[in-house]
Design a protein that fits this description.
- This protein is an all-alpha fold and 196 residues long.
- The chain has two domains: 48 residues, Homeodomain-like (Arc Repressor Mutant, subunit A, Orthogonal Bundle), CATH 1.10.10.60; 138 residues, Tetracycline Repressor, domain 2 (Orthogonal Bundle), CATH 1.10.357.
- The protein is 75% helix and 0% strand.
- It has ten helices and no strands.
- Helix 5 packs across helix 6, helix 5 packs parallel to helix 9 and helix 5 packs antiparallel against helix 10.
- The relative contact order is 0.11.
- This is TetR/AcrR family transcriptional regulator.
């Protein structure tokens, strides 16, 4: 019986994300992954039941890694402006440092895997950021908004800037790099739009 190797499993996860981003879900296969990892296909089945199991497990683990990084040390009692600034910086740092992860999450959102993975991606965020938003409402800093409206205004602009940065070009096709100045300028506009 073959044994598990933590290093090999990490390699498999990393290569799986690489291939899923480059080839999409339709072009991804266990054979391609085994070849990219320089292991036998049988080795992959030590860790995962099948292709779907692999994609779901990799997505859940990557979502947990991202959530842990972004929420680490987040103080839900911060005033609204400071909390949003902190979240923008942490999210931007994580998603620009891990552009393949950002693309992977975008692909998941529009895939058939979304319904199975979505609860893991939003679970901790929903609780932490929901509490943060409700505290800001209770402190009379912002109006109560439906969560989808709040997220669209509070974070939608950030995720667009990150996408432009990771693609290397903006809306008009011109080169784009997300600088601290652009991040801060846009964040301040968002705070201004949401604050009473």
């Amino acid at each position: 019986m073959r044994t598990r190797s933590a290093d090999k499993q990490q390699l498999v996860k990393r290569k799986a994300i690489d291939l899923l981003v480059s080839d999409g879900f339709e072009g991804f296969s266990m054979n391609k992954l085994a070849k990219a990892c320089n292991v036998s296909v049988a080795t992959l089945y030590i860790y995962y039941k099948d292709k779907d199991d692999l994609i779901i497990q990799v997505a859940i683990e990557e979502a947990q890694r991202f959530t842990d990084e972004v929420l680490s040390g987040f103080d839900q009692t911060l005033n609204f402006a400071d909390g949003i600034r902190q979240q923008w910086k942490r999210r931007a740092q994580q998603l620009t440092k891990n552009p393949k992860s950002a693309r992977f999450f975008d692909q998941l959102r529009t895939s058939t895997y979304n319904d199975r993975i979505h609860p893991f991606i939003v679970g901790q965020f929903k609780e932490a950021m929901g509490d943060f938003m409700l505290r800001a409402v209770a402190n009379d800093e912002i109006d109560l908004l439906p969560m989808n409206v709040f997220w669209s205004v509070a974070y939608g602009p950030l995720y667009n800037l990150i996408r432009f940065h990771n693609e290397g070009k903006g809306l008009t096709g011109q080169p784009f790099v997300l600088t601290d100045e652009i991040l801060e300028q846009t964040c301040e506009l968002v705070i201004k739009a949401l604050k009473k």
